[in-house]
Specification:
Length: 206
């Protein structure tokens, strides 16, 4: 038996190793209602094999989880998703995706500890599932941007109408995205980084 090949298979892949040039790491949380695409976004943009905690949906969730609009969904995140992306040679983002169902929100406290900011992913077919999520971020004082995920049958609203519907201040960025596309998901994270930088600069100037 070739034990050497077995040992090599257990070791980290080259793409999983943190770049030697990295000097700063930032924790970012991806939040949103049930079925809005959080796991998809983390998976599409992560440069390492993402860690997911998806489990098959069972009868236990019937009458508890609101599946209206996502009736064909068969799996759900029960703890978190985790991924990593290098923004440049020095800055690395660690991504933590939260469960969308309210019954798992008790996990948020740990997931948000040390987070610099958040991305709120929304589905325009079900805006109402985003209201409580945004409210909890505002209560915690966590800076965030809103990303409108693209679904084939989703209505297309002007961004200002969405801002009014979500009751967002003018300062909070709203961006369009397709969570299935790596470049699009990366653009969302860049929008968050720019927003966080602008907040830091405003605070320094005050």
């Amino acid at each position: 038996m070739d034990f050497r090949s077995s040992e090599q298979a257990l070791g980290p892949r080259s793409e999983d190793v943190l770049p030697s040039t990295a000097t700063a790491a930032v924790k970012v949380v991806i939040v949103g209602g049930f079925g809005v695409g959080k796991t998809t976004l983390v998976g599409s943009v992560s440069e390492i094999r993402p860690l997911t905690t998806e489990e098959t949906m069972t009868q236990a969730g019937v009458g508890v989880d609101d599946t209206q609009g996502v009736e064909r969904k068969t799996a759900t995140t029960v703890a978190m998703d985790f991924g990593r992306i290098s923004i440049n040679e020095e800055l690395v983002l660690y991504l933590f995706g939260t469960p969308g169902q309210e019954r798992f929100w008790f996990l948020w406290r740990g997931l948000f500890e040390g987070a610099l900011g958040a991305v709120v992913l929304i589905d325009t077919r079900r805006l109402e599932v985003s209201f409580d999520v945004i409210g909890r971020l505002e209560e915690r004082g966590v800076p965030f941007v809103v990303a409108v995920n693209s679904f084939p049958d989703a209505p297309d609203y002007p961004l200002e109408e969405l801002r009014a519907a979500l009751d967002l201040p003018e300062s909070v960025p709203i961006v369009l995205c397709d969570a299935r596309q790596r470049a699009s998901s990366r653009d969302v994270l860049m929008a968050l980084m720019r927003y966080l930088q602008s907040l830091a600069q405003a605070q320094a100037a005050s």
